[in-house]
Amino acid sequence: MQSLPFPFPVVQWQDDRVVLIDQTLLPGKLEFRRCGDIPSLCRAIVELAVRGAPAIGVAAAYGLALSWDLNRKTGRSLGRIYEAFEVDRAALAATRPTAVNLFWALDRLGKLVENLVAAGDRDAVEIGAALLAEADCVLAEDIAMCRALGQAGQELLSDTATVLTHCNAGGLATGGYGTALGVVFAAKEAGKNISVYADETRPLLQGARLTAWELADQGIDVTLLCDSAAATVLRQGKIDAVITGADRIAANGDSANKIGTYPLAVLAHRHGVPFYIAAPDSTFDPHTPDGDGIRIEERDPEEVVQFHGQLAAPPGVAAYNPAFDVTPAELITAIITDKGVFRPPYVSSLRALGPGLEPK
Amino acid sequence: MQSLPFPFPVVQWQDDRVVLIDQTLLPGKLEFRRCGDIPSLCRAIVELAVRGAPAIGVAAAYGLALSWDLNRKTGRSLGRIYEAFEVDRAALAATRPTAVNLFWALDRLGKLVENLVAAGDRDAVEIGAALLAEADCVLAEDIAMCRALGQAGQELLSDTATVLTHCNAGGLATGGYGTALGVVFAAKEAGKNISVYADETRPLLQGARLTAWELADQGIDVTLLCDSAAATVLRQGKIDAVITGADRIAANGDSANKIGTYPLAVLAHRHGVPFYIAAPDSTFDPHTPDGDGIRIEERDPEEVVQFHGQLAAPPGVAAYNPAFDVTPAELITAIITDKGVFRPPYVSSLRALGPGLEPK
């Protein structure tokens, strides 16, 4: 397979399109999905061609630049372009409910346009250029945040640490560098010899398909596990740290992440292994006081009933398929961010993330 | 699909062959595998065409009857038949290492032959008939044990209980009635309205393929879950009891069962949900003092990396595939047996199972 530059080109702006690594095809095929309109980008998000909270945020930012660009080219008035932009913004907001980064990016570019339109001194071309520059900025900031986060996190790892991770909080889940795996990449850059156990992460196998792929691609020792075998390696004392990403972190530190994260945190706690959440600023949601306020997406039961497109259960059997669970703050040893490593009690320590992230 | 009688005809003796429901083909196809020699029966056990500790015990018992029958028909002397029988007995013993029922059945029929040969007053035909009668007895006893176990266990469930189970400890895992699912079937026979959440049970999806199939076949409400979503339904308070089978129970109550049972017990404990092991006598191993002495089978990493021949991970990726884990006695609320329900401390309570099951 064609090798990729690193940080991975997860989301790019090319020839007036949003170009994504099609993650539904990995690890079998490395192909790019070129989204030339908002419906195709929404589809890419819903179908998980791009997934991972920070990567969705970046894709949504470029999506708004695309929306403006397409509507501007129709020769409409600024008012009409803005109306259409708001419709597209709502469509992008409706794709996935849990990842806060999506709404964060849509808000950020939405407010930029709102301000520029209200100021009244820019034309549609200039506003489009500002939007694209802002999307570029969202991407560049994400990579910089992941590098800072990785650096802060790698200091928690010994020279020969073994890390257990769940799902894919890697380069592919972000602008290219990764959060949980960003810590691993940063440790490698610091000369450490890190090994990783990767949960395969049913139902969609992001661990098997994506985490194993990108770690192997970067020359890091990786061993795949069924999700239910993680308890065994924790009990065997093979794991020095569990590190996962997060899709939304409430004001008290409760963290929503891929289904299966919560039981992993319970097991890590039982076996005295530190459990870390690695996430950039944009994952924090100070408006949600605790995990009870986080809406959990339920996905199609077919994802459970099928395995890689093949029917694994009797036809017509019911299935329950929550996409995320919430790990209570009490089980999280620390939250690794680009602003440093935060420890409990999170309700006070997380306020240091900045005024914008204080509870309102 | 053709409907089956209940208890399910998991292992039968037909036309001088051991006939098995081929569980590798369920739920897509209901086919019987006819084993006319020991290598094909060993293959059926290794390939999991027959699986589940009690069912393996029954298959091994009929396997020894088959061995004697085949060797007797060659016209060899009694001594030579016995030698060949012992070779076949060793081959059957080498198929799977964890399920104690396999060794229990091989010992039981082995000792019968040893005694009959030593007594010197039976010919090869008579010994063959005694062996086949003994195998029939192992099967009949298993069904009777499962019925008794189911009856004892169903008394622990309310009229509208929701049960969570892992893997398949059902009719298909036994002589036809089931252990963990035997409790559910007995509750249904007692007029209770039981619902079941079934973990799909990676890597081989016995929950999706077998448990969902046999519960649906028996008209019991079943909802399939990814293994890592079990923590969520436990936390949501949807589960009244977790019930699993066991492959081997040590003298202190530590219980080996399908990988993923241990984390389920930890989660049940955290959420105050009773965790029950359901197993017949033959699963108890008084010679193993605790879980540390239970050998855990490691199976082919390909089971994790592939599914139905489809690659789910990058080629060449390493995988760790322990087939079982050990749930410590402290997490087991009770052990449901055909002799009643046993509570901690198991090291003393389990002795009531009988003189043969006391530690030696």
Condensed summary:
The structure is a homodimer of 360-residue chains. Chain A has 360 residues and is of the alpha/beta class. Helices cover 39% and strands 17% of the residues of chain A.
Q: Key features?
A:
17% strand; four-stranded mixed β-sheet; globular; 360 residues; alpha/beta; 11 helices; 39% helix; homodimer
Write the layout of secondary structure elements.
Two copies of one chain form a homodimer.
Chain A: E1 11-14, E2 17-21, E3 32-35, H1 38-46, H2 53-72, H3 78-93, H4 100-119, H5 124-154, E4 162-165, H6 180-189, E5 195-199, H7 206-217, E6 221-225, H8 230-235, E7 241-244, E8 248-250, E9 255-258, H9 261-270, E10 275-278, E11 284-285, H10 302-305, E12 306-307, E13 310-311, E14 318-320, E15 324-327, E16 334-337, E17 340-342, H11 346-349
Parallel strand pairs in A: 4-5, 4-7, 5-6, 7-10, 8-11, 10-16
Antiparallel strand pairs in A: 1-2, 2-3, 8-9, 9-15, 12-13, 16-17
The largest interface is: A-B, 53 and 52 residues
**Widest sheet of chain A: strand order?**
6-5-4-7-10-16-17
- Structural category of chain A is alpha/beta
Main beta sheet of chain A: 7 strands, mixed
Poorly predicted runs of chain A are: none
Number of strands of chain A: 17
Shape of chain A: globular
Protein model, in words:
The structure is a homodimer of 360-residue chains. Chain A has 360 residues and is an alpha/beta fold. In chain A, 39% of the residues lie in helices and 17% in strands. Chain A has 11 helices and 17 strands. In chain A, the strands form 4 sheets. Chain A has a 7-stranded mixed sheet with strand order 6-5-4-7-10-16-17. The first copy, chain A, has a 4-stranded mixed sheet with strand order 11-8-9-15, covered by helices on one side. In chain A, strand 12 (306-307) and strand 13 form a beta hairpin. In chain A, helix 2 runs antiparallel to helix 3. The termini of chain A are far apart. The model of chain A has no long low-confidence stretch (mean pLDDT 94). Strand 6 of chain A pairs parallel with strand 14 (318-320) of chain B.
